[in-house]
Write a structure and sequence with these properties.
Blueprint lengths: L2 E3 L2 E3 L21 E3 L2 E3 L22 E4 L6 H8 L3 H7 L12 E4 L4 E5 L6 H8 L3 H7 L12 E5 L22 E2 L7 E3 L2 E2 L14 E2 L2 E4 L5 E3 L4 E8 L5 E7 L4 E10 L6 E2 L4 E5 L9 E8 L2 E3 L4 E2 L2
Parallel strand pairs: 9-22
Antiparallel strand pairs: 1-2, 3-4, 5-6, 7-8, 10-13, 11-12, 13-20, 14-19, 15-16, 15-18, 16-17, 17-19, 17-20, 20-21
Helix pairs in contact: 3-4
Amino acid sequence: MAVVISGYSVGNSNFSFGSRAGALNASAAEGVDVGGVAMSRDSTIIQPVAIPTTPLPDRKPILYRVAAGDTLDTIARSFGVTMREITWSNPGLRQPLKLGQTLELPPLPGVVVTVKPDDTAASLAASYGVDPTIVLGFNDLRAADLRPGLRLVIPVDPQVGPNLSTGVPADPIYPGQFLCPVVGAPIIQRFGPTSLAIEPSFGGYLHFHTGVDLLAGYGTPIVSAAGGRVTAVGSADYFGIRVQITDRFGLVEVYAHMEQVAVALGQEVQQGDKIGYVGSTGLSLGSHLHFQLEVGGLPTDPGPFVGC
């Protein structure tokens, strides 16, 4: 539930200071309820309108030092955050994690942000899909207080997600989930160890499939599973013709074995935008799409897709 205080939302509960209904009569008798507020003879409020039902969340970033055996998955489960929120809050994060490395985690659904020289409350709000009062109010700041290097926590509604830099929602179809890049396509090979000799070795396995394969015919349109910026286009050895998109959470998506691309380097795309066409270029035995998700530089199981 969202706590509403002075026009902005925090936490998980509904809470407002309310407003009085109509004009209050200064001569109201003691004990008379006027608009839901008990008044004394001198019109002093003697009863609160509402009280919070849960404590307000801590508004500071959580600083976590990586311990032996930690992975992004175990850290995410321990702190009740998502892997996306960890990568989002730690730009440039690389795997494997290093013992003693410090990660910044949001104390509630959202992101930890370091203010850059050109950032304003309005520009940060546009990037993360919130109101400027959220950016300032949650961090107890005025606009004049923003300065480069300042660390902020920005609450983000997980049902809305972040925006592209243009201000439009990155994931307008399924926020927080991956849309199937080839809608309705069957998954013919999943992430993980395999007996298929064409696959390279990885993670101690002789053959390991580092993505998910979707069966589709030549020329079938491919759409972006999540919104972000195109960070690579063209041929790349094993992948053949591929498009690489770094999504708004900092995850890298690779769409491989394409016949043709439909986007340009640096272009911003929304979830569901067409980015190319299915082919069989690179190390491929037939027309299909290889979708690979990379977190911190390592291939990672993307989990379920919506619509495959």
